[in-house]
Amino acid sequence: MTRLSVNLNKVALLRNSRPLNIPDVIRAARLALEAGADGITVHPRPDGRHIRTGDVHDLARLLKSTPATEFNIEGNPFEPPLMELARATRPQQCTLVPDTPAALTSDHGWDLAADGGRLKPIIAELRSLGIRVSLFMDPLPEAMPAAAACGAQRVELYTEPFARAFGTAAADTVISGYAEAARSASRNNLGVNAGHDLNRDNLACFLAAVPQVQEVSIGHALIADALEMGLASAVADYLRIIREAG
């Protein structure tokens, strides 16, 4: 069954608005895991606008006590602090994302024709540390052989275009592109993750159409739902949707 990794960036963003450590990122992680989440995702950025380096170290210590739980750190490997944190904390997975420091959020996948050569030694180093490497990619079937050639073990399909198309006349065409990209990834021995703007309304549709997905990373929508439902209930509801889709 598809695994759920809860992205805690928005918990940290709210906390950072006041000097009180409320809400507590570590407590949020515990609540998510107790509710059944399979993993925790964070995306530290150079400006520390949400998850901070201290949070990453604290979460790494917490998750060492639950070895079945995956710790996934996302970020641009050419910008601090991703590689420093990966070397220090040895998460189960690093998802490499081509963000610029000024980016509000992730909004495109890697162009491997331009960046594949620079990524190869970074991917090799991460793998030598025992870290699985996933590349954040647009749903382009023709790009999957290049992702495999770089040494990546998984790709994370960028799902905002799917979320924008969901419920419109373009939905079937868009989702078929994701399905073909996932099949291409599988043919190239790449695992498939997915993330960005997946929510309780569109998640089941996506998983039904793209059954290769091994993991979804969900933050913004899940934390927004938690404001109404409570964090444990929101995690439980996303797990219910995943089970029913499977």
Q: Could you describe the 3D structure shown?
A:
The radius of gyration is 17 Å and the shape is globular. The chain has helices spanning 9-15, 25-34, 53-64, 82-89, 112-128, 144-149, 160-165, 171-187, 203-209, 220-229, 231-245; strands spanning 3-7, 39-42, 70-75, 93-96, 132-137, 154-158, 191-195, 213-218. The chain has one domain (3-245): TIM Barrel, CATH 3.20.20. It is built from eleven helices and eight strands. Helix 2 (25-34) packs parallel to helix 3, helix 9 packs parallel to helix 11 (231-245) and helix 10 crosses helix 11 (231-245). It is 47% helix and 17% strand.
Assembly context of the chains: single chain
Measured between the Cα atoms of the first and last residue, the distance is: 6 Å
Top CATH class: Alpha Beta
Instruction: Report the sheet-strand fraction.
Output: 15-25%
Number of domains: 1
Q: What's the CATH H-level homologous superfamily?
A: Aldolase class I
By CATH, the architecture is named Alpha-Beta Barrel
Write the CATH fold name: TIM Barrel
Helix content: 40-55%
Helix-strand topology string = EHHEHEHEHEHEHHEHEHH
Secondary structure layout:
Layout: E1 3-7, H1 9-15, H2 25-34, E2 39-42, H3 53-64, E3 70-75, H4 82-89, E4 93-96, H5 112-128, E5 132-137, H6 144-149, E6 154-158, H7 160-165, H8 171-187, E7 191-195, H9 203-209, E8 213-218, H10 220-229, H11 231-245
Parallel strand pairs: 1-2, 1-8, 2-3, 3-4, 4-5, 5-6, 6-7, 7-8
Helix pairs in contact: 2-3, 9-11, 10-11
